[in-house]
Amino acid sequence: MQPQGREEAASSIAPKAAQVAPAEPVPEGPPFPDADLMYIVDLLPEPERERYLAIRSFLQSSVRQPSIDYWNREEFPFGLLAGMGQLGLGGLQTDGSSKLFKGLMYVEVARADVSLSALVGIHNELIVGMIDELGSEEQKHRWLPGLTGFTQLGAFALTEPDHGSDIAGGLETSARLERGEWVINGAKRWIGAGTIADFALVWARDEADQQIKGFIVETDRPGYRATKICNKIGLRIMQNADIVLDNVRIPESNLLPGATDFSRANRLLRDSRAWVGWQGAGIQLAAFDVARSYSLERRQFGKELARFQLIQQQLAEILGNASASLALMAQLARIQEDGKLEMAQAAMAKATCTRLARASVAMGRSILGGNGISADYEMGKLFGDAEVLYTYEGSYEINSLIVGRAVTGKSAFV
Ligand SMILES: Cc1cc2nc3c(=O)[nH]c(=O)nc-3n(C[C@H](O)[C@H](O)[C@H](O)COP(=O)(O)OP(=O)(O)OC[C@H]3O[C@@H](n4cnc5c(N)ncnc54)[C@H](O)[C@@H]3O)c2cc1C
User: Atom 17, ligand 1: which residue's CA is nearest?
Assistant: First the structure.
């Protein structure tokens, strides 16, 4: 894994947004430039390792720096998405990649930009995955080619204004079958890509049998209205939306035939929880990259920050947290390959990696001093993004309670 090019390392004290021209060549970078002290990437078989290196290089050279400006402006970088699509990041779910490779891709996209890693993760785990596993042949034929090429986008619409943690029991959006059409009514909140997607995968309760079912709702259907949620402190590139569904009519065939109750979707939701664990590892590597590079250049009291013991201790702690997260996730990938992953392990990994991520970005923020407060220096952006990882895909508390229930046999939350 590679933190940033040497040119970037040489000029990281200047605000990232201002760095367009290549900097002067600099001498040798620091040891362990990729920060993979535990050789996790070596666990990949050779062809996947080569692909991993090529994609990582693209992400660091073409995505990382431009994403800072997009993040500050809360804009979606459609141009970057095209390049990511060409590298196959829209089709990780169906291209036969190993779980470790897919996970390390999530790490590297998060290392370049956390919002885009949210898009790549939700897209693969919850959109492509749901249609591929629970969709009809017609739905697969219609949507999968565009989705896997990243020329089309879906949004995953589960959370509602009044139901987040208790969504499984509390979901209020309704679906009624009427003369060969489903009529959907309700509201959704926080829906990633809700304003830019081609369709939303909407979870609604069938009035007939009270089961929660998954429906493909094209975003140009009359009655679908999405409003961007502005002024977020994290994931600012991701276009999250409040969605209103007002008597939206869709063909009967837009119901996912495999999603006629919530139980089959649960397996994919378990995997998507684990995906956030990978994001937690990636954001910590990003924090380490930025903090190390800054500490090697910023001078106080006549020497680089990197020479101070307290700075070194924090760098070691960030990298220790990141490595522990990566190692945990690599083992999770193994049990996933063996078909042994359950909700408890996914929840534990998600909660642990995001707890460590929050601690790591706080140390990174402090290493940058006042410049850690400005998102232009990248660390402030990571600081805000970590808050989202801590809360979405089940909050830290709810994931901890899932683990607690698994190891005590007693539920403390329902
Ligand atoms: C940036 C962002 C992107 C998102 N993207 C999507 C998306 O694409 N699609 C989607 O469907 N959803 C999305 N979400 C929603 C996300 O999954 C929810 O925000 C999350 O599940 C928490 O729900 P809530 O915000 O309603 O918080 P609440 O459920 O209201 O919880 C508030 C607080 O109470 C705590 N709490 C709740 N119940 C208990 C309990 N029983 N015991 C102890 N503590 C409890 C929680 O841990 C939390 O600290 C996104 C959210 C954010 C912020």
Answer: 392
Smallest CA separation from ligand 1 atom 35, residue: 397
Measured distance CA(122)–CA(148) in Å, rounded? 13
- Contact between residue 247 and residue 223 where contact means Cβ atoms under 8 Å apart: yes
CA distance linking residue 125 with residue 158, whole number of Å = 14
Q: How many residues does the chain have?
A: 414
- DSSP character string of 3-34: ---HHHHHTTTS-GGG--S-----S---SSTT
User: Could you give the maximum distance between any two Cα atoms of the chain, in Å?
Assistant: 78
Q: Which of 52, 67, 82 is nearest to 19 (CA)?
A: 67
Read off the tokens for 354. 């995001």
Structure confidence at residue 112 (pLDDT): 98
Residues near ligand 1 with C-beta < 6 Å? 122, 156-159, 164-165, 190-192, 235, 240, 388, 391-395, 397-398, 401, 413
List, for residues 29-52, the tens digit of each pLDDT value: 899 999 999 999 999 999 999 999
Domain ranges of the chain: 1-414
Select 1-414's CATH number: 1.20.140.10, 3.40.50.720, 1.10.150.120, 3.30.43.10.
Answer: 1.20.140.10
The phi, psi pair for 23, rounded to 5°, reads -85, 175
Q: Using an 8 Å Cβ cutoff, are 1 and 56 in contact?
A: yes
Minimal CA–CA distance to 291: which of 215, 205, 383?
A: 383
Angle between helices 99-112 and 114-121 (to 10 degrees): 150
Predicted confidence (pLDDT) per residue in 227-248, tens digit: 999 999 999 999 999 999 999 9
Q: What is the pLDDT of residue 388?
A: 98
Rounded to whole angstroms, how far apart are CA atoms 330 and 328? 6
